[in-house]
Amino acid sequence: MSATKREEVSSHLRYIRLELREMHQMLIREDLLPDPNEAMEVYAQLDALLDLLSDKRVKKIKNQF
Question: CA–CA distance from 40 to each of 1, 7, 23, 31 (Å)?
Answer without folding.
Answer: 28, 23, 12, 20
